[in-house]
Specification:
The protein is α/β, with parallel strands linked by helices. Helix content is 31%, strand content 23%. Helix 1 runs parallel beside helix 8. Bound molecules: flavin-adenine dinucleotide (FAD).
């Protein structure tokens, strides 16, 4: 039994209680504090800082960048220099990663511990819709709540999988030795980014993907370029695979049975990487003690202000979805805090959504795809241009990919763009600005585009579109 009398007199009157101090939670806590509110942050993670800093974006991109540098160095003869072919030293890469991450993590901890918030380093769960119980038995109450507990690795109930000693992205990001080979299950963003990392540091990678293309949610044209690049680097990518069963053979060997094109296959691995996705971390929040509604996906349902069906409870970040990426989590957290305390805020919508996949070539898209435009009855006009015909990418030997721009034929406004290339994650931002501001191709062509840069490639489809849209108007 929880004893409400144990709620410390001066702690039971928070304006906002944030459950989970990652990207979404910190953004909400900071925003509420700036509004002069009394804020509690409850985080029970073994380390403070959240997924992005500890086991997500930052460690993965640190290691992926190391692998990219290694890959370039290994191609040295192409650029006119010789020498022994460099090889990966996983322990050294880990050391660098730990140092980099510690810096980010120390900074975030400092922000959470600098006295602006009442910080509770415990797990919390609802005992009723107005009370959170901490693992040490304390009870906390607040006027408003924000649930921002993030996500956990999905453990799909495939026959035998849960009996096998499989690895997750956490393990891959902590690798300080080089596995000789591995099987990667899945073809999503994390699966692809880390499959290529493992391959580039010298591991023989077999990647098993259920659908015909990797990177669901991106155009098949984009996925195809990445698939070709993967194959050219020696990744054995098998698509159209149906996983059948898994069996631990010895202490460290696992048999994977699957079908491809209706034929049975079997592989044995010492390193099985389960990259089949993540799910919202809501199972242990005591939500059953509230009347809070979750969606079929397991996400906590919210309106565009991140408010749940219980008006004093908000949810943001991976536990709310629908896009599990950091800038969305931050924007959701800020929106929730402002709305909770009566500020006028723009409801969140995702028509300008920006997404990046850190494979090489990178894949980046912003706004609407041609299919989405047509579903909405918009008449699309598109133009694209390949990097294998562009000066800067040719001189850099970075010829994979293309840029594509999609506009609304009637208004002329750019509604979406896609870029597959080296550093596509950087290149997409000029088009992200265009989409957000409702610019037309002619608007963008008023800007200078420096030569020779990768960015100037955008001018080719923009010129084509400007011409086609001008013809429409005449
Ligand atoms: C390998 C990998 C790479 C990624 N790369 C990118 C990328 O390049 N770009 C990008 O935008 N996104 C990336 N992501 C996704 C991104 O990391 C997440 O979308 C983001 O970190 C989610 O933030 P959040 O605040 O929702 O959750 P989190 O940061 O996970 O925060 C949740 C917090 O809640 C705490 N918590 C959980 N339950 C409780 C409880 N009951 N009580 C108290 N505290 C609790 C946890 O300890 C944690 O600190 C990546 C993810 C992975 C796994």
């Amino acid at each position: 039994m929880h004893n409400l009398d144990r709620v410390t007199e001066n702690l039971n009157t928070f304006d906002l209680l944030v459950l989970g101090g990652g990207s979404a939670g910190y953004a909400a806590a900071r925003t509420a504090k700036e509004l002069g509110k009394k804020v509690a942050v409850v985080d029970g993670g073994s380390e403070l800082s959240g997924l992005c800093i500890l086991r997500g974006c930052m460690p993965s991109k640190t290691l992926i960048y190391s692998a990219e540098v290694l890959h370039l160095a290994q191609k040295g003869s192409l650029f006119g220099f010789h020498g022994e072919k460099p090889v990966a030293n996983l322990a050294a890469m880990q050391k660098r990663k730990r140092e980099v991450i510690k810096e980010f993590s120390d900074y975030r901890k400092e922000q959470l511990e600098d006295g602006r918030f009442f910080l509770f380093r415990e797990h919390g769960s609802f005992v009723d819709s107005h009370t959170i119980s901490l693992t040490d038995g304390r009870l906390l109450r607040a006027e408003k709540f924000l649930i921002s507990t993030g996500s956990v690795v999905q453990r799909p109930n495939l026959p035998g999988l849960l009996d096998c000693p499989y690895k997750t992205s956490d393990d891959v990001l902590d690798l300080d030795y080089l596995p000789e080979e591995c099987i990667v299950l899945g073809g999503g963003v994390v699966a692809c980014e880390l499959a290529q990392f493992l391959s580039r540091v010298g591991c023989k990678v077999t990647q098993l993907q259920r659908s015909e293309h990797i990177l669901k949610g991106f155009s098949s044209k984009a996925s195809t370029v990445v698939e070709q690049a993967f194959c050219s680097e020696g990744i054995d990518l098998k698509t159209g695979v149906s996983l059948q069963s898994f069996e631990p053979l010895t202490d460290d060997q696992i048999r994977v049975d699957f079908e491809q094109n209706g034929k049975p296959h079997s592989l044995i691995t010492r390193f099985l990487f389960n990259a089949l996705g993540r799910k919202p971390a809501t199972a242990e929040l005591g939500l059953e003690t509230t009347e809070l509604e979750c969606l079929a996906s397991g996400h906590i349902g919210t309106n565009p202000y991140q408010q749940t069906n219980l008006p004093h409870i908000y949810a943001a970040g991976d536990c709310a979805g629908p896009h599990e990426i950091v800038h969305v989590a931050i924007r959701q957290g800020e929106t929730a805090a402002k709305h909770a305390f009566g500020l006028s805020v723009v409801p969140l919508e995702y028509d300008h959504l920006l997404t990046v996949v850190f494979t090489d070539p990178q894949v980046a898209r912003v706004g609407l795809s041609v299919e989405q435009m047509m579903q909405r009855g918009i008449d699309p006009v598109s133009a694209s241009y390949p990097f294998d015909d562009h000066g800067k990418s040719i001189l850099m030997e970075a010829k994979w990919g293309y840029v594509a721009v999609h506009a609304d034929r009637s208004s002329g406004r750019i509604l979406g763009a896609e870029c597959v290339s080296k550093d596509a994650g950087e290149l997409i931002h000029s088009l992200s600005v265009a989409v957000a501001l409702g610019a037309t191709p002619s608007d963008l062509l008023k800007a200078d585009w420096y030569h020779p840069t990768l960015s100037e490639i955008w001018t080719y489809p923009l010129e084509d579109l400007a011409e086609e849209l001008a013809t429409n108007c005449t």
